[in-house]
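fyi for ur records
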Amino acid sequence: MPETYAYTLLQRKTKRLRKETGNPNLRSVLDTDKDPRELFKRSIFRPLKMLFLSPIVFLLSLYMATIYGYMYLLFTTFPRVFQGQYHFSDGSVGLAYLGVGCGCICGLIFCGTFSDRVVMYLTKRNGGEPKPEYRVPVMFAGVFFVPAGLFLYGWAAEYKVQWFVPILGTALLGGGMFIVYVSVLAGARERICLTLSRCPERHILLMHTLLTLHPRTLQQLSFDLL
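which gave:
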């Protein structure tokens, strides 16, 4: 696959121009002249500072982490629900995960279809200046799908509705999670365009930290409800 990271592309171009011109003083506009140790420290601490010192970043990351935890909480209930309640075999119970996969694909199509169109519409309506906040309206769809999917899955499992209904609930959850994830990361990348490779780390850090606690503390509760 072709390289797309601006820093790497400019570094390659700078090396080529040094060789062609014989001028060793040429520098990339993105070159910070920092040694690898300083770059490593900056890459580690910058996402942490953004996560804990920016309220909007922290709240969006916390919301993403909560959705991420609920998804894995659902995964822990699949064997009990689909094998114990719907009598899926050991070989077919894995097909229950297709609901989440299909939901993520639908979420990807939804974001690809509407995200840029909404941004262009809001940009045109508000003076022609694009803003990262214009990604938020598309995220509202995901905010609705996530609780709807959780409710549908829990209700169908509780009342033993036909097996397709809880899988439909997992699809709604997967689609909603993907829409929220893409919208938040797209807005973050547009706000901090020069640190593209570091943008997701603050979200992923909180997501995986909460993941280690969230499903484990709620797993027994979910089994009691089932």
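The longest helix spans residues 55-85. thats all i got for now
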